[in-house]
Amino acid sequence: MAQPQDIAEEEAMLETEIELGGEEEEEGEVAGYFEAEPTWYEKPLQYEAVAKVWRLVYPVLYQLYSTADYLGEKVADALGITQSRFQYAIDEHNRQLAKKRKKEAYIRKKLLEEREKERKRLGLPDPNARATSMPEGPMVKVQPDAVEESV
Fold first, then answer.
1. Rounded to whole angstroms, how far apart are CA atoms 105 and 111?
2. By the 8 A CB rule, do 28 and 35 touch?
């Protein structure tokens, strides 16, 4: 391209470039910036027939997918695939803990029974029993004896 000598010549060159398609803004460009084309799922359905079919097919496909997912989950659960790899060890550990707690509770109960028998044999008062009646007679405040000072 030749260097423009004056403004009129420059304007004429711009007009010819625009006519030839030189510096036109292409579709998708906004003031020098590229505008990304929307992805396939962001585009609206272009044809009404396709949109109508999609609105009819989509609920059916979704229901099929949901049913298959539900049945797959039930089959996996029935086959034991969903359990952890060492579930049997965890179950055995829990059984042993429950057995140990039950044994400790039994021993504790027996010890309390033996303690109660021994207390009764020795004639000791029941530590858990509360006094239900007040002592007889007027309540008198007992004062300590006066200590005499020896001089």
1. 10
2. yes
Taking the C-alpha atoms of residue 29 and residue 83, their distance in angstroms, rounded to an integer, is: 55
**82 neighbors 76 (Cβ within 8 angstroms):** yes
CA dihedral 103, 107, 108, 109 (to 10 degrees): 100
Which burial class, exposed, middle or buried, applies to 13 when counting CB atoms under 10 A from its CB (0-12, 13-18, 19+)? middle
Q: Write down the pTM of the prediction.
A: 0.35
Contact 45, 54 (CB under 8 A): yes
Tokens standing for 88? 């049997």
Query: Which segments of the chain are extended strands (E)?
Result: 29-30, 33-34
Alpha-carbon torsion, ordered 2, 4, 8, 9, to 10 deg: -10
pLDDT digits (tens, 9 = 90+) for 142-151: 666 655 555 4
